Amino acid sequence: MLVADCLRELKNAIGNSEEYLRFERAKKSLAEYPELKRQVEEWRRKYYCIQNQDGIDLFDEVDSLQEEYATIRKNPLIREFLASELLVCHMIQEVYREILDSVDLDLQFLDETAL
User: Contact, 22 vs 87, CB < 8 A?
Assistant: First the structure.
């Protein structure tokens, strides 16, 4: 079987998974409330930036962001969207880990560098 065929099957499996279908339902529900959607996107943008910054105390920054957005995160639509998004992200991370673990790319040089 060609890798392209396997990739097509994987894409179909992900797209038809309960996790992804749940995420799509949550995304559609949230889209019905543009102001809530805007707030969620703002929170996600800030969270992403924190995770990709160097030289900060990640835990303090995340705690601060969690406090700042605590009120909107109590909303059931937002909670469902964020929870379902997290499940999809974990699924994709697991796929990535499995692929990386199955291929010997000899990445030991990364252990010796400061990234």
Answer: yes
The tens digit of pLDDT for each residue in 3-59 reads 999 999 999 999 999 999 999 999 999 999 999 999 999 999 998 999 888 888 888
Q: Residue 18 has which token pair?
A: 């309960």
The two tokens of residue 26 are: 């949550």
CB atoms within 10 A of CB 108: 7
Nearest residue to 115 via CA among 52, 45, 46, 47: 52
In angstroms, the CA 102 to CA 96 distance is 10
Residue 86 has which token pair?
């997290």
